[in-house]
């Protein structure tokens, strides 16, 4: 059974929320895929997201993955709710080297009080994608407070 498509209003609400993400916007991130239970965010490589060995910084990878998972979860909540991360565990599988990263968040289970999401992070170099990190997180729906 396939999940219902996101409505235009849901998509607009999530994109407006992402536009308020000063941290990720400042790093140049953008949503590249958004469906019910799924969100992918792309982050280009640059000095602001690198570490001393020339790889993507683990903190940037964690923030990117956490955010992709959060917006995947947000596709599953009511219009009067937003989401916050309760916890996450990330495994760095190999150095993140490439032109950009893509974090693909997929909801594993959407309960009333906790949403569990898995996020795979790929380093993309040219056309080659390599899995560089895997994150699993718990997300809580909360009452919407923003615009």
UniProtKB/TrEMBL annotation:
GO molecular function, one term: fatty acyl-CoA hydrolase activity
Entries under InterPro entries matching the protein: ACOT13 (IPR039298), HotDog_dom_sf (IPR029069), PAAI_dom (IPR003736), Thioestr_dom (IPR006683)
Keywords recorded for this protein, A-Z: Hydrolase
Superkingdom to which the source organism belongs: Bacteria
Coiled-coil segments on the chain, per record: none
Domain Thioesterase, chain residue ranges per copy: 53-127
SUPFAM superfamilies: Thioesterase/thiol ester dehydrase-isomerase
Family indicated by similarity: Belongs to the thioesterase PaaI family.
NCBIfam families: unchar_dom_1
Protein name in UniProt: Uncharacterized protein (TIGR00369 family)
Species of origin: Sphingobium boeckii
Taxonomic placement: Bacteria, Pseudomonadati, Pseudomonadota, Alphaproteobacteria, Sphingomonadales
